Amino acid sequence: MKITKNEVIHVADLSRLDLDEESIDKFAGQIANILEYVEKLGHADTEGVAPTSHAIFLSNAFREDGEISHLDRDTAIANAPEKEDGSFVVPRVI
Amino acid sequence: MKLYELTIKEAHELLKRKEISSQELTRAVLERIHAVDDKVKAYITVADERAMEDARIADKAISEGNISRLTGIPLAIKDLMTTEGLRTTCASKILENFVPPYNATVIGKLKKEHAVIAGKTNMDEFAMGSSTENSGIQITHNPWDLSRIPGGSSGGSAAAVAADMCIASLGSDTGGSIRQPAAHCGIVGLKPTYGRVSRFGLVAYASSLDQIGPMTKDVTDCAMLMNAVAGYDPKDSTSVPKEVPDYTACLKHEGLKGMTIGIPKEYSTAGLDADVSAAVKNAVRKIESLGAECIEISLPHTEYVVAAYYVIAPCEASSNLARYDGVKYGFRDKEKGDLMQMYRSTRSKGFGAEVKRRIIIGTYCLSAGYYDAYYGKASQVRTLIMEDFKNAFEHCDAIASPVTPAPAFRIGENTDDPLTMYLSDIFTLSANMAGIPGISVPCGFSGDGLPIGLQIMGKHFNEEILLTVAYNFEQETDFHKRKPML
Fold first, then answer.
1. Where are the alpha helices (H) located in B142-190, listed in sequence order?
2. Is the ipTM above a cut-off of 0.85?
3. Do B99 and A78 touch (CB under 8 A)?
4. How many angstroms separate the Cα of B128 from the Cα of each of A18, A44, B286?
5. Mutation target among A23, A46, A63, A92 for the B interface, most CBs of B within 10 A
6. What percent of chain B has pLDDT above 70?
7. What is the interface size between A and B, counted as CB pairs within 8 Å?
8. How are beta strands B211-216 and B260-264 bridged, if at all?
């Protein structure tokens, strides 16, 4: 599986990234090298091996259902690039 | 001795006996930063005024007889742990002006002990890298040779400790980011067991691998800092509700009799630098002379570790970094356009090349049709890597190995070749994949005078054995006492 320039553009699109022509060429080469290296995983015998997504055994983390304090609204949105009346402002959607 | 050269333990004794004040100590550290950081560039933010305020509070606590081990001690914090009211950038343009409204749990713990925060240190952007060259803010130089990298991603923290610009530091380690820069800068760095230290307030890179840990001038300080930061946190559902031992109880110079240390045969690769190989062999001999038995063990899936890591970590990163969209905090590109264009231009201008590369790799590996071949397969290989360690620890109590295949390379040497850079992480990635603890301790110098580190790894929640081996080794050597000339 060799990643093509078009695939890089497609995946960048899914990732909400714009790449210029130069970055596309550069990334396509570098990422192809990395993926080619990663192909070696195919040689590992994983027949019947369960996947691991978390290295420590833990069951669900429950807590008592109680009241706890949270950031107030103004503090929580203080870092927003644009805000109004306690809300985030975004460019027009519809 | 200069005040900034003190260790936590030494400074604590002087503070306790009221021979120095935290304000004197903090001022000395800040002056040291202003004297040498122009050359090293370890700090992104130096918190001069706040640090002096922290010191005044600490002195007040001490005068009231209220002193714990970190009271009044100036520490440097890697710039990806949130500090209330103090800018936290992750060395990224996208968070360049982010001032967190809350403290990470570890910062809260330090505050409770009245520790002093001297500032926030440089790193690879979002902790993605092994040289701190991927910082979107500045390049950090290795205090031992300014033309070389300090390692990464916690390169600023390591350089700050090595250059005495703090008494100790906190870093984070996702694939070696504490241990590798510790080795390159000649200091001690510990990556604890996954779940030992709360990740609440640690900006996420790869959530199943990230862990905060101490970076210190010696093993004693490492144990002291671990005591302060370890423990269960209800705010981190992956932290483990397990009692925290007193790690300083391991600091006994009683030898290593009865202990078995495994040496992985797969780690003696052809690519290992001759000076590193010699230093690590000498270290193993020293450990043997302390009474431990050293045996060969096998970690047969070592050859797959780099490949599995560089699938899993980017996959998790691509998902974690989706939150940077220019809406809630951080940078927003304000050029005219609709919401989608705003997302795209914000992310494109805000992220650096390595971050984009990993987001693209991660998104690709998780996309329909490729998920099983990449993420699924890598997760199965992760199980095999964990089993390797489980089997190995049936024959030994701890594993000793190099931290890095070679001493610190030159700035700019590997920047255009990400794969070569990734391959140099071979000895550190496994501990993150398996969730086990690993420590780096200074074990020698190269012919060029560059520090070399010895790695010791142990079973889950067995940080004590790492500290015991490291402490006994340190007592027999003086590598940790040498200082770079600046």
1. 155-162, 179-185
2. yes
3. yes
4. 20, 26, 35
5. A46
6. 100
7. 174
8. unpaired
- Per-residue model confidence (pLDDT) at position A1: 56
A81-88: average pLDDT: 95
Question: Measured between alpha carbons, how far is B224 from B87 in angstroms, rounded to an integer?
Answer: 27
pLDDT for B453: 98
Q: Which CATH class is domain B1-486?
A: alpha beta
Cα separation, B429 vs B444, in Å, equals 22
CA–CA dist A79, B135 (Å, integer): 22
Domain range for A35 is: 1-43
> How many structural domains is chain A composed of?
1
Does A81 contact B363 at a Cβ distance shorter than 8 Å? no
Distance of CA B198 to the CA centre of its chain: 14
Query: Residue B96's closest chain A neighbor by CA?
Result: A79
Within-domain flag for A93: no
pLDDT at A64: 87
B9 carries an active-site annotation:
no
Q: What pLDDT is attached to residue B199?
A: 98
The yes-or-no answer on residue B153 being catalytic is yes
* Nearest residue in B to A53, CA atom: B379
Give me the catalytic one of B177, B198, B424, B430.
B177
Å between A52 CA and nearest CA of chain B: 5
Q: Which residues of B touch A65 (CB under 8 A)?
A: none
Determine the residue of chain A that is closest to B338 in CA distance.
A91
> What pLDDT score does A3 carry?
86
- Distance to chain A for B476, nearest Cα, Å: 34
Low-confidence ranges of chain B (pLDDT < 50): none
CATH code for position A8: 1.10.20.60
Q: Is B368 exposed, middle or buried (0-12, 13-18, 19+ CB in 10 A)?
A: exposed
Q: B253 vs chain A: nearest CA distance in angstroms?
A: 31
What does the pLDDT read at residue B120?
98
Query: What residue segments make up the domains of chain B, in order of their start?
Result: 1-486
Give residue B390's pLDDT: 98
Question: Is residue A92 domain-resident?
Answer: no
Residue B336 is predicted with a pLDDT of 79
